[in-house]
Amino acid sequence: MENPMRKILFLVSAALSTLLAVSANAQVKSDKVIEYRQSVMTVVGWNFGPMGAMMKGEKPYDKDVFARHAAIVAYMAPLAIEGFAPGSEKATEVGVETAAKPEIWTKMDDFKTKMEKFNTESGKLAAIAKTGTFDEIKKQFGTTGGTCKNCHDDYRVKK
Ligand code: HEC
Question: Ligand 1 in contact with 74 (CB < 6 A)?
Fold first, then answer.
């Protein structure tokens, strides 16, 4: 985009669509928000599990398969915060349950910081999974896993 006017228009429309997305989400029922965050976490967990098994030697290590799982986690990580929108502390419909602790919404800055850490470390994992040695990958996998635990310990009800 060499034309500065086009760049400005692009930035304005990007900002507007973000605003629209936020206000649209504000009207989504809490149950949908809860289902969304659990879905994001389910996808993250789905892809994290086999990576763990490979790191522990429970599954043969396949660099490409591992890198693909790592890329999916890194893609999902920034999506998760939207699933903790204000007002989604509790479900309103019977049958929808949440393991998210109410402290998330009273300590949102800390929660966001923990989410950012997860974001950063899963991004590093996706990068190193492609180029790193097994030991480097294993180390970064451990660091990334630590960011899950760091949040779950404080903000997720133990089952
Ligand atoms: C910043 C906080 C945070 C981080 C980081 C985080 N989680 Fe979670 N996770 C939660 C919370 C809160 C819930 C409970 C959500 C609910 O029940 O509404 C959850 C739920 C889950 C679930 C259950 C989903 C379901 O169907 O109920 C899985 C699986 C999961 N997380 C895996 C992971 C993995 C793996 C990582 C790291 C790679 C991770 N999470 C990182 C906060 C986090």
Answer: no
